[in-house]
Specification:
single chain, about 450 residues, mainly alpha, 21 helices, 2 strands, about 0% strand, globular
């Protein structure tokens, strides 16, 4: 598709709004399935532990095993998607997700359970950054916050419907059948994407001035990019947010059953509602951020400070929640504590894309996700050990939540100090490595 030149110095690219939003819808369901695949292990936690005779620390290892290859796969595929169309990379990943569900249908031992979760994690590691990279090819920089947040909340909506639905399957059939259902749903999405998915037209042609300046002008050394204050701040905020996210994915449903003494089906509905309420926080703050930018605010304030503040407030919410008795108020602070930090998963990649040249964006978004999700490699196992070591199961869970809150508080404060996209773009330009990047980034990256 050829660019349509506007009156400004940077031409615009003709994009079909209908097709662009169709891609957003498909990628929304992509993340819907992605998080259903993640949360099923938590929904089936107690039946799995009972059937396989697993102690809490062993099940915690199963939960963390999902993230063993998650980060490495995200980085590898991030570099791949710099060179190959995101459309086909997404298709391959979704196929892998579906196929890794079916071995869980038969007789499963501890080793098979771990192997399937590791393989699924390798397939899902690049999901979010590749989805964002794909949608960024359909929307310019100033319009990316809303579609990014819609894709992000696909996870929460997925859990809203998947939690009660999969719990019903587990209750009326068994936990093996829940994995079979996810495999079939994954293959349906693969077919839909094969028929309807497409590569976006926004690319190098959007910035011919940058292209004319040569390839060197469009690149910043990866070490300089990844060690910038903005990227380090995004790494840290993402890590502490994912610490809580992964802990809730693996242990949230079990906490409601074992510590709050809820019926499994009731716990599943509560889980779905909590995730949905938390998910609504992300587009709300993404909209606020976008509105602040339109009013002339800096990216540091409108994205960096806003995101860091959410991570800090979330940490405080988790600590308060852990000290409250079981009841509705505790659930409110649970949503605040684990919902607010998730804003980093929408605005963090936006800030990373803002300072990164187009040809490096896929890899940088993937590295950002990879570093952030290292929190998921640690937190489920830590929670399992704390639950097992606690004098009571309730106190074990409380200790795990308090630790997660402190981690979020500290990480949010550090991110607040470090994130400054404008300063980093200016520094890259001054170093003579980004050429027209500072101007180009304001328009697309």
């Amino acid at each position: 598709m050829k660019p349509a030149v506007s009156s400004g110095s940077v031409p615009s690219v003709a994009v079909s709004p209908g097709k662009a939003w169709l891609i957003v819808v498909l990628l929304f369901f992509f993340m819907f399935i992605n998080f259903a695949d993640k949360v099923v292990i938590g929904l089936a936690a107690i039946p799995i532990m009972d059937e396989l005779k697993l102690a809490p620390d062993q099940f915690g290892f199963v939960g963390s095993s999902f993230f063993i290859l998650f980060a490495a796969s995200a980085i590898l595929v991030g570099f791949v998607v710099n060179r190959f169309p995101a459309r086909w990379v997404l298709l391959v990943m979704a196929t892998v997700w579906a196929l890794t569900q079916f071995p869980m249908v038969g007789t499963v031992g501890f080793a098979t359970l771990v192997a399937c979760r590791v393989a699924l994690g390798a397939g899902e590691g690049p999901a979010y950054p590749v989805a964002l990279h794909a949608v960024y090819k359909w929307f310019p920089n100033e319009r990316r916050a809303l579609p990014s947040s819609i894709i992000a909340i696909g996870s929460s909506v997925g859990i809203l419907f998947a939690a009660p639905g999969l719990t019903w399957v587990i209750k009326h059939y068994d936990w093996h059948m829940a994995f079979a259902v996810l495999g079939v749903v994954g293959l349906i999405w693969v077919l839909a994407w094969l028929l309807l998915g497409a590569e976006g037209p926004i690319g190098d042609a959007e910035h011919p001035a940058a292209a004319a300046a040569g390839d060197r002008a469009q690149r910043v050394p990866y070490l300089r990019l990844l060690s910038s204050g903005t990227m380090l701040g995004c790494f840290i905020a993402g890590f502490v947010a994912y610490w809580g996210l992964a802990m809730m994915l693996v242990w949230g449903n079990a906490f409601l059953i074992q510590a709050q003494h809820r019926d499994p089906q009731d716990a599943a509905w509560v889980t779905g509602v909590l995730w949905t309420c938390g998910g609504l926080i992300v587009p709300t703050f993404s909209y606020i951020s976008q509105a602040m930018l339109h009013r002339g605010g800096t990216s540091r304030k409108c994205r960096g400070w806003l995101t860091s503040g959410c991570v800090i407030a979330g940490g405080a919410g988790i600590v308060i929640m852990s000290l409250l008795p079981p009841g509705p108020l505790q659930l409110v602070f649970l949503v605040i504590g684990f919902g607010l930090p998730s804003v980093i998963f929408s605005l963090g990649p936006t800030m990373a894309g803002e300072i990164t040249p187009l040809r490096q964006r896929g890899a940088v978004l993937a590295i950002n996700t990879a570093v952030s999700t290292l929190g998921g490699l640690v937190s489920p196992a830590v929670m399992g050990k704390l639950v097992q070591a606690g004098p009571t199961i309730e106190l074990g869970y409380r200790n795990g939540f308090v630790l997660a809150g402190i981690v979020s508080l500290v990480g949010g404060v550090i991110a607040l100090v470090l994130i400054n996209p404008e300063a980093d773009r200016a520094r890259f330009a001054a170093a003579g490595k980004a050429g027209p990047l500072a101007a180009a980034a304001a328009g697309s990256d």
